[in-house]
Design brief:
heterodimer; A: about 500 residues; mainly alpha; 2 strands; globular; B: about 160 residues; flat; disordered N terminus
């Protein structure tokens, strides 16, 4: 059995002392930033990316992945205990989780969130192990038209399923693609949009935009809001859900995992969409929907399983196709590139220890999170007492050092300040930066594949719809656009995302 | 509807301003790409992709602009001009000091200036934080990871 051999290889890599240690650091940092509002996995991974240079590739990815799924986990802890979603994906968890906490059932809510996440993590580890290799094999047959159509589908889904206005998000995707053009054109050697600045001929660093918008702009934005005082609920006792709780949540956990895995494989969507969909499904299926919003345990179990499943399955398109399925995944691929490994379907065959080690580490990491979190909940919550006036200068300091260390030059620092200001404008005008960032990452890849595809077809654009795989991606893109553009669904979507 | 339109000025109209931003960026994109060879669909020149994108950006921008005029929505009112001014300055000053003064002064000045962007500024608290963070970052980045930055230039 290939599957078992692969998993055994993975565990033998992930269980070395060094990798366990990096997995632990990742999960710990992830939980930390997940608990703290105002800083997310994207900015954290961007800041830490330069320092992973000195770490072996497998360990680096294991740590970064730990930060990513650890943050989903930490975000739900604060959502339940203090009604403060640490991450966007935990917004839904607030609805019923906080109500449960107010009824003195914080323990079972945290417990079921942990069980659901762990279950989803386990299932998704198996899903990746089962479907990763065949997808990678299929991807090896992809040509330029397939890649282009797939990326277009990812960008359209990212825009359509983002918060807020759909047209604005599509415009943000275009803006991101355009920002990706900045730099020297690989085919002609011509410097585009460089404004005569020599450094700009190398293009804009992804980390610069990520930190500028998701750390600096975010802080500027937060400083405009009133600082909220955290209200603590009663002390957490008895973490174990009762049998009745587990029975009611079981279905929700299964469905949540399936929904999360589905959205996870789809490039362009974030975990918030998975958790939201799961919540809607549970509410629809419930015998008594009025319990939702008043402390229904399914409303915690489903979304928590879904966001974890989504986070984990995002690695499928990322690792098998070499196409980042979300902005955070783009950073993961960035980490690979820093290490001199070209992302793509060949990673699985050429670097099996890296691929399977990472997969196995995610399962171990999920287990660690359960152990790390449940007994230490008091510690995490007390972190929330740290006032923002202490927190934000620390974030500034780490952002600046991180950015400076990319090239050991101040030029990137100035560019970060620029994107901090622009990003603030975007946030104020409610233009979503997340689809922009994905567009920025995919921009150069898309242009390259578009050129190649049209070169093969001798300039005939029908190549995108005459090749079956490419055609199906195009068809899905069109369907998504039409469905989400329907007035009825658009209205409903606006209600949900508001 | 008409009443709402009267209340929201153009300078305060969320979608109108987004539209302007998109049109402006798209316009700049086309203006700058004028000199880049377009090529043909078969052999695309470096100008092809950016010009198509800029054009799409302008179209989306026009849509937002019209949306803004038809259904005016106000910008969120709470924002901090102070933070918008101070934080980018703090970042730039950090960059300058890193090159000319060294790691320690750059970090301490960064923390002092950024803290000033907040609502409260307590001198002793900021001082303790600056010292603590400098020692911590030194331990992590310079001692631990071996990044080659001079602590103070000239020493």
């Amino acid at each position: 059995m290939d599957l078992f051999n692969n998993l055994i290889l993975g565990f033998s890599v992930a269980l070395t002392l060094q990798n366990l240690w990096f997995c632990f650091i990742g999960c710990f940092l992830g939980t930390l930033i997940g608990v703290l509002p105002g800083i997310g996995p994207l900015a954290t991974i961007a800041m830490l990316l330069p320092i992973t240079f000195n770490v072996p590739p497998t360990s680096a990815l294991i740590m970064l992945a730990g930060i990513y799924y650890g943050a989903q986990y930490g975000g739900s802890t604060t959502a339940i205990l203090v009604n403060l979603p640490g991450e966007t994906s935990a917004v839904v968890t607030c609805l019923d989780g906080y109500q449960m906490a107010r009824q003195g059932r914080a323990g079972p809510a945290l417990g079921i969130a942990a069980i659901g996440s762990f279950f989803a993590g386990t299932v998704c580890t198996l899903i990746i192990a089962l479907f990763g290799p065949p997808i990678a094999e299929m991807a090896l047959k992809f040509g330029a038209p397939e890649y282009f159509s797939l990326m277009m589908m990812g960008l359209v889904t990212a825009a359509v399923l983002a918060h807020g206005d759909m047209i604005k998000s599509l415009a943000m995707v275009c803006l991101g693609l355009l920002l990706g053009v900045v730099g020297t054109d690989v085919n002609s050697g011509m410097a585009r949009y460089s404004f005569g600045v020599p450094e700009l001929t190398d293009g804009i660093g992804f980390i610069v935009i990520a930190v500028g918008v998701f750390a600096v702009s975010e802080i500027i934005q937060n400083l405009g809001d009133k600082e909220e005082r955290v209200v603590f609920t009663k002390k957490v006792t008895n973490l174990w859900p009762t049998w009745a709780d587990i029975k009611t949540s079981m279905g929700a956990i299964f469905r949540g995992t399936a929904i999360g895995a589905f959205f996870g494989v789809l490039p362009g969507t974030g975990p918030a969409i998975a958790s939201f969909s799961s919540y809607m499904v549970e509410k629809k299926l419930a015998k008594d929907p009025s319990r939702f919003g008043k402390g229904a345990i399914e409303g915690v179990a489903g979304p928590e399983s879904a966001n974890n499943a989504d986070a984990q399955c995002k690695f499928i398109p990322t690792l098998t196709l070499g196409i980042p399925a979300s902005a955070v995944m783009a950073l993961m691929l960035g980490a690979l590139t820093i290490q001199g490994i070209a992302p793509g379907p060949q990673v699985m065959t050429q670097k099996p220890d890296l691929f399977w080690g990472l997969i196995a580490s995610m399962w171990i990491g999920n287990f660690m999170l359960v152990i790390l979190n449940l007994p230490m909940i008091g510690l995490w919550v007390s972190l929330l007492k740290v006032p923002y006036r202490i927190l934000f200068p620390c974030i500034m300091a780490f952002s600046c050092i991180g950015i400076y260390s990319v090239n050991n030059s101040s030029y990137e620092i100035y560019l970060t300040a620029f994107f901090g200001v622009i990003g603030f404008l975007w946030m104020r005008f409610e233009m979503q930066p997340a689809p922009m960032l994905l567009g920025f990452v995919l921009g150069p890849l898309m242009e390259e594949n578009l050129r190649r595809a049209l070169l093969i077809s001798r300039g005939d654009p029908s190549v995108f719809v005459t090749r079956p795989i490419s055609a199906s991606f195009v068809a899905m893109t069109v369907i998504i656009l039409i469905v989400m553009g329907l007035p009825a669904i658009r209205k409903r979507r606006e209600q949900i995302t508001d | 509807m008409a009443e709402a339109a009267l209340k929201v000025g153009l300078h305060d109209n969320k979608n109108f301003l987004s539209g302007l931003f998109f049109i402006g960026t798209g316009g700049l994109g086309i203006f700058m790409a004028q000199d880049y060879p377009m090529g043909s669909a078969l052999r695309m020149g470096p100008g092809y992709f950016p010009i198509v994108l800029s054009g799409m950006l302008i179209l989306f921008g026009i849509y937002c602009l019209i949306q803004g005029l038809l259904n005016p929505e106000k910008l969120p009112h709470n924002w901090s001009p102070r933070a918008l001014l101070i934080l980018p300055i703090a970042t730039v000053v950090f960059g300058i000091l890193m090159e000319h003064a060294g790691f320690i002064p750059a970090l301490i000045v960064l923390i002092f200036i950024s803290s000033y962007a907040g609502r409260e500024f307590k001198f002793w608290e900021v001082l303790v934080m600056a010292i603590g963070l400098t020692i911590g970052s030194w331990a992590l980045f310079i001692w631990g990871l071996g990044l080659p930055y001079p602590l103070i230039v000239g020493y």
